Amino acid sequence: MERTFAIIKPDAFKAGNAGKILTRIYAEGFKILGLKKLCLSKKEAEGFYAVHRERPFFNDLTNFMSSGPCIVMVLEAEGAIRKWRELMGATNPNDAAQGTLRKEFGTSIDNNATHGSDAPETAAFEIGYFFSGIELLA
Ligand code: CMP
C-alpha cells in the first residue's frame, strides 16, 4: 500500500466543497489515515512549497494557501500517488478532464481546489511536514 499527501485548498473549503471532495475520496477507495483542518501561516505555506521558491507564482501561491482554512490529509491506496493525481486532474482546471476534482471544483490555476504529492520523496516530505507517525491510523 502506498501513501500520499493531499490538501483541500482554501478556495474549495470556503466554497463549501470539502464534504463533496471527501465523499469522492472514499468512493474512489482511498483510506484516510490522517486528517486535520488548519489555517497555514504565510511562513508555513512558504516552507511547505519551498520547492517552488524561485517560481514567479510563489508569492501568490503562498498568500492564497495562507488565506483561510484548508484540510490536510494522508491518503492510502494501491498506487495512491498516481491515483490521487488522476482524481484531481490537471493542475489548471481549464485543462482538467471531466469528472476530475479540479474540473468540478477548481476555478483557476491558482484556485485549483486540491493539492497532491507528485512522487514518493515529495509525499514523504509533505506527510512529515504536517503529521507525526502516531497521528496516522490505518
Ligand atoms: P499545487 O499542486 O498545489 O502545486 C503548486 C501550485 O502552484 C499548483 O498546484 C498551482 O495551484 C499553483 N500554480 C500557479 N501557477 C502555476 C504554474 N504556472 N505551474 C504550476 N503550478 C502553478
UniProtKB/TrEMBL annotation:
InterPro entries: NDK-like_dom (IPR034907), NDK-like_dom_sf (IPR036850), Nucleoside_diP_kinase (IPR001564), Nucleoside_diP_kinase_AS (IPR023005). It catalyses: a ribonucleoside 5'-diphosphate + ATP = a ribonucleoside 5'-triphosphate + ADP; a 2'-deoxyribonucleoside 5'-diphosphate + ATP = a 2'-deoxyribonucleoside 5'-triphosphate + ADP. Keywords: ATP-binding, Cytoplasm, Kinase, Magnesium, Metal-binding, Nucleotide metabolism, Nucleotide-binding, Phosphoprotein, Transferase. Its EC number is 2.7.4.6. The active site is at H115. The keyword Hydrolase does not apply. GO terms for molecular function: ATP binding; metal ion binding; nucleoside diphosphate kinase activity. The keyword S-adenosyl-L-methionine does not apply. ATP binds at K9, F57, R85, T91, R102, N112. Its main location: cytoplasm. One of its GO terms (cellular component) is cytoplasm. GO terms for biological process: CTP biosynthetic process; GTP biosynthetic process; UTP biosynthetic process. Residues 1-138 form the Nucleoside diphosphate kinase-like domain. It is found in: Cytoplasm. Pfam families: NDK. CDD domains: NDPk_I. HAMAP family: NDP_kinase. Belongs to the NDK family. Major role in the synthesis of nucleoside triphosphates other than ATP. The ATP gamma phosphate is transferred to the NDP beta phosphate via a ping-pong mechanism, using a phosphorylated active-site intermediate. This is Nucleoside diphosphate kinase. It comes from Desulfobulbus oralis. The gene is ndk.
